[in-house]
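Running low. Got one?
___
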Amino acid sequence: MTGNRLPETIPDLEPGVTLLETPRRRSAALQQLVVSHLVDGQTRQGWWVDSGNAFATQSLYELTPGDHVLEHLQVGRAFTAYQHGSLVRETIRRTSQRTELVVVSNAPYYYRDDEVQRTTAERLFASVMELLERLAEACSVPVLVTISEEDAFTDVVREHADRELRSRETTEGIVYVGEDFETEVFWREGYFQTTIPYWVRLLGVLGDGEDVYEAPGLYEEPGLGAWG
């Protein structure tokens, strides 16, 4: 945070591979992060390789300030591990310096399929992640890879990720947590909602031996105070 400016609610995506952990395969956290990045972009050109039906057209358009934001977002859906590998390679072929973002949602999803021999699946997936890492470096583009469950395949994603983000949904909104980012405020129409970590970072915590002073009248017995 700079000066009196409130911290951002959504992290920026930098060039490199970012691993986003979502609570389920189709998550608003992913949709929100993608839209936020494309809104700030110049060309808004993006490639999305989808597995497990994470791409949600209606949710994305509900989040955008205008249809033009998603005009240059191209989506390819995979239904097998082999299709997924082919789509990733095609995405790499099409990516250019104009590309703002590459999304690979639920990356390990089809590699867990019993129809693919385990050793073959592991080899294919390791190859895919290596290609994505090279793409991010060669084109200096953010590559956003999502997972929603833990296993040996997600360990491979972590090996190739430059940074990790975790997300969770709350009654106030989506929280993103990473090594150098944490959602601490939630914007609403005409106001914002803060969190305890925000005030702790802003004001610090009580030291040993410091007293707590309560303002009179704020903590009345139930039914007897101004809110009764």
User: Anything to note?
Assistant: The two ends are 39 Å apart (CA to CA).
